[in-house]
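>> received
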Amino acid sequence: MEMRRLGRTGLRVSVVGLGCNNFGDRCDFAATKRVVDRAIEGGITFLDTSDTYGKRGGSETFLGDSLGARRQGVVLATKFCLPMADDVYSRGASRRYVLQAVEASLKRLKTDWIDL
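>> returned
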């Protein structure tokens, strides 16, 4: 798999990435694991998800469970902003919510860091 630098981040990623928007919704855990396994076997190192994918966190949860010890070999990108609950505080880009969203994503992804 061809690799490229990701802008000025210093990260090197595969030219093909895996969008994880179907995990936790259209794909159950078994299907998610199969897709992630095949992607990594094929040399894909860039995985893109969001806290709202998979019915509010399902994608990140399934992805974290699927990666396990292979986490170190991939670049994880995730996003936030859209509502994660029905209250007015669980959305947006306030400092408070950014910190809350990142901590929640780290837990769901079962990792200590988010690359992007």
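>> The first helix runs from residue 29 to 41.
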